[in-house]
Structures are given as structure tokens and as C-alpha cells.
């Protein structure tokens, strides 16, 4: 695979600023996940105020949105790798594979059913492109075309790296869903006891 630029590389100050922005967003997500998925995050939940519970639910939803976006990006790149591996196995025409690449991401192999919920909107100060740094280090958008020239061994190596990232992200997403469900259940219980209004339940 082609070499990657080193840390804080780019054209002058603009490139350095972009790299620092990326690192800041990645650090935000890593810090949030460490805190939100800590074993004691939900301790004392019944004693917390309704406002605190709502705030906890909101921050878990925001992190879940970021993680879900990363998961989709990882799965799309895996679909490309799998398509190229299939090409090697079938001995297909290279030109036809190149033509099909843009449509493969949207029509990849079926995946196991996950949680059927619509993601919340990510905060406007979170640049989605900045979240994909780890994925880009394995296979960024500019290098997807090189997949068609890789050997089968190289493709399998890239696929294994992407699979490991996707699995970790999926585990984080599942854990966040469990947090969100617990917090939502607490809000519902407050509604049933009269502490929360219907408006508060839907807020």
C-alpha cells in the first residue's frame, strides 16, 4: 500500500490546523466512550435528578451517533475489500470491477439485524471526516482505487484490520444502546410515578 503522511503533515498552517482538528475530535470521542462505558457510569441512577438523567441520555445518544457513523464507514470499506477478494476468487474482468466500485458500498452483503433506531444528529462542531482517522490509516477514500491492484494477501490483511475495527466499534455501539435503554427506562419510570410529565418523557 502507498505510504501515509506523518502526523501534522499538510500544506503550511492549514494542514497543521486540520490535523489538530482531527486529533481533537478523535480525543473527544475516545474520552467520551471511556467515561460513558465505565462500569460505574450508571451508579446511583435512581437518586439522580431528572435533568441529570436526561443529560446522560443525550450525551450517550451523541456518542452513539458518532460511533454508528464510524461503523457504517468501516462496513462500506469492508464491502469494497470483499468485492475485490471475490474478483480474485472468480477471476473476473478488472475493468468491470472498477466500474462497479461506486455502487458496491450501497449494495454490500446483508448484515445481521441491529438495533432499529434512527440516529440523533451529531453536534454541528463535530466534523464527521475527523472521526475516520483510524479507518483512513488502513484505507482512506483516496486509496480505494488501489484495491484493484492489490494481491489477495494484501487484501486479506486490509480486510482483517478493518474487521477488527468494525467489531470493536460494533461492541461500543451495542454498549451505548444498553446505556440509552437503561436511561430511557429510568425516565419512563419517573413518568409512571408522576415525577416526569408526558412532555418530559418525549423531550
Keywords:
about 200 residues, 7 helices, about 0% strand, mainly alpha
Concise description?
With 203 residues, the chain is mainly α.
Number of strands: 0
Mean pLDDT: 75
Cα gyration radius (Å) = 21 Å
Q: What does the overall shape look like? A: elongated
* Major sheet attributes: none
Number of helices: 7
Distance between the termini: 48 Å
Regions with pLDDT < 50 over 5+ consecutive residues? 1-18, 105-125
The SSE order reads HHHHHHH
Helical proportion, percent range: 55-70%
- Which percent range describes the beta-strand content? under 5%
Structural class: mainly alpha
Characterization of this structure:
There is one protein chain. This protein is an all-alpha fold and 203 residues long. It has a domain at 14-29 and 59-108 and 122-192. The chain is built from seven helices and no strands. Helix 1 packs across helix 2 and helix 2 (50-90) runs antiparallel to helix 6. The protein is elongated, with a radius of gyration of 21 Å. The N and C termini lie far apart (48 Å).
Amino acid at each position: 500500500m502507498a505510504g501515509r503522511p506523518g502526523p501534522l503533515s499538510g500544506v503550511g498552517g492549514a494542514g497543521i490546523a486540520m490535523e489538530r482538528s482531527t486529533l481533537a475530535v478523535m480525543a473527544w470521542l475516545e474520552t467520551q466512550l471511556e467515561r460513558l462505558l465505565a462500569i460505574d457510569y450508571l451508579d446511583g441512577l435512581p437518586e439522580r435528578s431528572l435533568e441529570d438523567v436526561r443529560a446522560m441520555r443525550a450525551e450517550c445518544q451523541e456518542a452513539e451517533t458518532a460511533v454508528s457513523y464510524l461503523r457504517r464507514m468501516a462496513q462500506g470499506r469492508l464491502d469494497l475489500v470483499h468485492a475485490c477478494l471475490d474478483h480474485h476468487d472468480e477471476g473476473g474482468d478488472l475493468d468491470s470491477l472498477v466500474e462497479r466500485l461506486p455502487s458496491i458500498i450501497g449494495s454490500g452483503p446483508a448484515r445481521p439485524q441491529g438495533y432499529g433506531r434512527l440516529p440523533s444528529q451529531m453536534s454541528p462542531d463535530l466534523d464527521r471526516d475527523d472521526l475516520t482517522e483510524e479507518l483512513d490509516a488502513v484505507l482512506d477514500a483516496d486509496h480505494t482505487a488501489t484495491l484493484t491492484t492489490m494481491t489477495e494477501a494484501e487484501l486479506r490483511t486490509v480486510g482483517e484490520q478493518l474487521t477488527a475495527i468494525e467489531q470493536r466499534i460494533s461492541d461500543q455501539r451495542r454498549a451505548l444502546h444498553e446505556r440509552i435503554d437503561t436511561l430511557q427506562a429510568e425516565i419512563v419510570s419517573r413518568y409512571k410515578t408522576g415525577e416526569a410529565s408526558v412532555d418530559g418523557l418525549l423531550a
